[in-house]
Design goal:
- The protein is α+β, with helices and mostly antiparallel strands and 117 residues long.
- The protein has a domain at 29-108: Roll (SH3 type barrels), CATH 2.30.30.100.
- Helices cover 35% and strands 25% of the residues.
- It contains 2 helices and 5 strands.
- β1 and β2 (76-82) form a beta hairpin.
């Protein structure tokens, strides 16, 4: 339809019939990539972090008297006494009490076997 023909149709007031397209059916093809990305993110980020937290919790349970530890603040100390939630430690000439979860790692184990508590 050229421009003159369009003007004629518009001038006569005849309604223009547009082809009606059926409503698209909902499908899951657009949802599959999002689900796939969620699974990849879970296994790439969240799962390793959970495993690391479990390993750290197991490490905290095995702390015993005489172990040398490294705290989250960078202090290297020797464990003097072990309590339920805290540790009494010695670093150089200072003794202080720290929270058990402030231990980043055990740098050196004591010679004694871990006790079953």
């Amino acid at each position: 339809m050229n421009l003159m023909g369009l003007n004629t149709v518009l001038a006569t007031g005849a309604p223009i019939q547009l082809a009606q397209q059926p409503a698209p059916a909902w499908n899951m093809t657009g949802l599959v990539p999002i689900i796939l990305m969620g699974v990849v993110i879970y296994f790439a980020l969240f799962r390793p972090q959970q495993q690391k937290q479990k390993q750290h919790a197991a490490l905290l349970k095995t702390i015993q008297k005489g172990d040398k530890i490294l705290t989250n603040g960078g202090i290297i100390a020797e464990v003097i006494t072990v309590k339920q939630e805290t540790l009494m430690v010695r670093s150089a000439d200072s003794k202080f009490e720290i929270a058990r979860n402030a231990v980043a790692q055990i740098t050196e184990r004591s010679g004694a076997a871990p006790s079953a508590a």
